Amino acid sequence: MPTKSTSQSRWAGNITCRKLNRRKKSDSNLMRFREYANLDVKDIKVIDPCMGSGHILVYAFDVLMQIYEASGYSQRDAAQSILDNNLYGLDIDDRAAQLAYFAVMMKARQYDRHLLRGIQPHVYAIVESNGLDSSSVEYFTNNDPKLKKDFGTLIDELRDAKEYGSILNISQLDFAALYARVEEVRVDISIFREIVLNSILPLIQVAEVMAQRYDVVVTNPPYMGSSGMGSKLSIIFKSIFLLAKQICFLFSLKSVGIW
After folding, report:
1. pLDDT tens figures, 128-176
2. Which of 16-40 are b and which e, b meaning 16 or more Cβ less than 10 Å from the residue's Cβ?
3. What is the rounded CA–CA span in Å between residue 108 and residue 118?
4. By the number of CB atoms within 10 A of the CB, which of 17, 42, 167, 178 ranks highest?
5. Could you tell me the pTM of the whole model?
6. DSSP secondary-structure letter at 41?
């Protein structure tokens, strides 16, 4: 049985460890704060991965505008830059994505009335690769081994994406090369041109948004019980939920000193 002095020493040691851990955490937070303090406003990426009709994106636009103005930008330049660099949104519902697109564009027009021409905000309906035929894929990849590998990965990871939505993990690919190939096709005369522009390009755009890392993720997630899920979504949900329970359990054991 431990003596009183031994228990006191252990208690004092635990307090010291906690203080050190708090100090390390505080130092880590300070370093992160300094990192963000030096961040260029154009590098701040904000996403709503379940954007619905875009209410959160519209509010985020106003917040970003205040940051831009504080950094010396005009409202006109800031509105263009927010659409180009800062704001991202996804949804599995096509009609919701159309409403979000309209809402974001109207918010941008509040600051610059000349923004309607040639602007595509990073606001997309999630698309899936299920319907692509092999001939279109072969034409797009153009016998390029690297392009074929990257686009094959994209096709695999976006299969059934309409069911899974933004919970999918998308690999970091050479998106610059994929976009470069789209531009080649844009000026090409081919029966596959429209398929590339209307079906393959949206896949690339959605995959890029899902593969990026973001400084701010804010959303009002869909409220749906497991009874409303399809079989595929139900399986992945259960695996995620089980992992989360295991992590929480281990964290609880560690916090009380058992593990």
Report:
1. 999 899 999 999 999 999 999 999 999 999 998 888 788 888 999 999 9
2. eeeeeeeeeeeeeeeeeeeeeeeee
3. 13
4. 178
5. 0.75
6. G
